[in-house]
Amino acid sequence: MAHPYLLQTSRLKRPPVETALFDFFKVGPGPSSSHTIGPMKAGADFAQRCASLPDSVLARVADVHVTLLGSLSATGLGHGTDVAVLAGLLGNAPESCPPTVLPDLKADRASRHAMRIGDRELSVGLDDIEFGPLRHDAPYSNTLRMALRDADGKSLFDMEYYSVGGGFIQWKGYTAPERGKPAHPYGTMRELSARLRETGLTLHELILENETAITGMGRPAIYERLDAIMDAMYDSVRRGLAAGGKLPGTLGVWRKAGGLLERSKTHTMPIGKGMGLLNAYSFAVAEENAAGGVIVTAPTCGAAGVMPALLYAMRNDLNVGERALREGLLASAAVGMLAKHNAGIAGAEVGCQGEVGVASAMAAAMLAHARGYAADVVENAAEIALEHHLGLTCDPVGGYVQIPCIERNAMGAVKAGNAVLLATSEEDCQHLVSLDAAIMAMGEIGREMNVKFKETSGGGLAVSMVEC
Questions:
Q1: In angstroms, rounded to a whole number, what is the distance separating the alpha carbons of residues 22 and 116?
Q2: Residue 437 forms part of a structural domain
Q3: Residues in the chain with pLDDT values less than 70
Q4: Which of 171, 194, 209 is the endpoint of a domain?
Q5: Which residues form the domain of 397?
Q6: Angle at CA of residue 93, ends 89 and 96, nearest 5°
Q7: Distance between CA 121 and CA 126 in Å, rounded?
């Protein structure tokens, strides 16, 4: 148990976590959950709403207009946000979007496309999407405003959407959908630990029971979808290791995963081989993400290489069994959901500490739990990993999720492994910082962090690399 003084912040009462597993882990195209997956979902939602409008309104529609605000405007071109929105307007959903859709739309930016609205077809293209001001009065940095307009440019129907990180979206007037309540409610790690002591459940069992209570899914269905998530992670590693050449964009970044894998085989020291493999696996997924490939938000696209790297290594190099892998993934979800619930996971809100930092904490929890360690050790491993990412800025060079993002994924994976090593080499009474305290610190740092360091490419390495 951590020192009482350091736990005082975690004693504040929080509403319970009610996020479902498969809202948190989502399969979709990169390079960014908040800039690609979220905007695509917003576009698809808007198209569905438009289709249900009265014929008297639809008869007057002349065009559709989208305005990207905040970070979506600042780095949306490099992230392909406009292309993602257009794909959504054309009826594509992230989880089922064919891999060729985004590259094809991006390849011919002047093309017009048919957007179905009821029985009508409306011509839409990338020039209907405006990159608006960075500063605005909406409650979230990543804001999209969409409108159907008449021939005079007057709005006939409009929506304001917020891409809040991890592929989650909300909108003006949003209320959470009605679902079941968690069987074992908790809003902080301290409360989660209390539920574990009260029930005698393991961490993964408690998460499973909450998932069933929230969604109504039985365990076989949950296991089937968890296996699909893990398979998508493995596939992203394998595709990335097999790919070569340069990544899209103007930076000229070469794929390195395959070369890192080959060099890892020549290391004579065990630590060099192990770290080399983690580097290769992390690069593989992060490069796939940067190329717009299909990955899993864990917790975001920008940090999608951390968890799969550990998972792939656990399965293929550490001989961890399938059941333990699945249970470790459930434990990682508890950490990620707490971070999202009490601070944030979007780079535009809290910086990269909320992306790679939380991914590293999740990976550490996954490895520790899969290895059979107690919940307090799992918490300590997650806390160590997150603590040593605090203050990490989100400063993608040129707006691309490439520099420094790809290498940061590898560093996050390596830190996760070392966090488990540290947590399992100490007595629990010697660990002084709680996971709640680290998450609260991340939230405070995110609120105080200057906007130019939060996914706008307005500061940090995004500027110094260009100027030096």
A1: 29
A2: yes
A3: 1-12, 468
A4: 171
A5: 4-20+183-467
A6: 140
A7: 16
49 Cβ neighbours under 8 A, 6+ residues apart: 157, 159
Query: Hey, what are 290's tokens?
Result: 């940067």
Q: Note the maximum CA span of the chain.
A: 74
Q: How many domains would you assign to the chain? A: 2
Instruction: Quote the Cα angle for 430-410-405, to 5°.
Output: 115
Dist. CA 261–CA 317, nearest whole Å: 13
Q: Please tell me the distance from the alpha carbon of residue 49 to that of residue 160, in angstroms, as a whole number.
A: 13
Structure tokens at 243: 């790919």
For the whole model, what pTM was predicted? 0.88
Residue 143's pLDDT is what?
96
Taking each helix axis as running N to C, give the angle between helix 356-370 and helix 306-316, from 0 to 180 degrees, rounded to the nearest 10: 20
pLDDT score recorded for residue 99: 77
Q: What is the spatial distance between Cα 264 and Cα 15, in angstroms, rounded to a whole number?
A: 46
Amino acid at 370: A
Would you state the structure tokens that stand for residue 343, as one six-digit string? Answer: 């601070």
Terminal CA-CA length for the chain: 47
**Matching residue, tokens 């979902």:** 41
Cα dihedral across residues 222, 170, 364, 7: positive or negative: negative
CA distance 296 to 156: 36
Q: Which helix (H) or strand (E) holds 296?
A: strand 294-296
pLDDT at 3: 44
Give residue for tokens 């409610």: 185
Write the CATH number for 62.
Answer: 3.30.1330.90
Dump pLDDT digits (tens) for 61-113.
999 999 999 999 998 888 899 999 999 999 999 988 887 888 889 888 999 99
pLDDT on residue 79:
87
The answer to whether residue 462 sits within a structural domain is yes
Q: Do the domain assignments include residue 395?
A: yes
pLDDT for res 119: 83
Burial class (CB in 10 A: 0-12, 13-18, 19+), 93: middle
Task: List, in sequence order, every beta strand (DSSP E) within 1-93.
Answer: 27-29, 63-69
Torsion, Cα 404 167 69 109, to 10 degrees, reads 80
- Per DSSP, the chain holds a count of helices (H) and strands (E) of 20, 9
Q: What is the DSSP letter of 1?
A: -
**The pLDDT value given to residue 10:** 44
For residue 25, tell me if it sits in a domain.
no
